[in-house]
Structure formats: structure tokens, C-alpha cells
Amino acid sequence: MKVSTIDEARAAKTQAASVFGLLASVVGVGITRLEDGYGLKVNLSEEAKRPLPTEVAGVPVFVEVVGSIRKQ
Length: 72
Prior knowledge:
This protein is α+β, with helices and mostly antiparallel strands. The chain has a single domain (6-65), classed as GMP Synthetase, Chain A, domain 3 (2-Layer Sandwich), CATH 3.30.300. Helix content is 25%, strand content 33%. It has one helix and four strands; from the N terminus they run αββββ. The longest helix is centred in the first third of the chain and has 18 residues, at 6-23.
């Protein structure tokens, strides 16, 4: 897996939101710390119906289904 810097992850975050927004029900996109660098974490409200990318702009992407986000 490629190691990405925090600046690369920040630059890819907006692009990831756009790409994943077309493919699944995105409730959030964030930057996550990895062992040797940074990646993106995409939170979905439900399981995607199609395969999703594992990287955007060379930055690794991890997907988690977290359900709907509601105000408490």
C-alpha cells in the first residue's frame, strides 16, 4: 500500500467525496492516520450496491458502513 502524506490526503478528500457520492450513500469523509502515513475514511449510511474504489488520487481509502447520522 502506498504511503500518503497529510497534504496528499487533504487534497484527495474533496475528490473522494465527489467520487463516492456518485456511487453510494456517503455520510462523511475524513482523514485517518495509518501506520506509515495517512488515508481517507469514507462513512456510508448503507452497504454500497457496487464495488467502490480503494484509492483516490493515490491515497488509500477505507470504507465503513456507520448508518444514518442523526442529531442527538
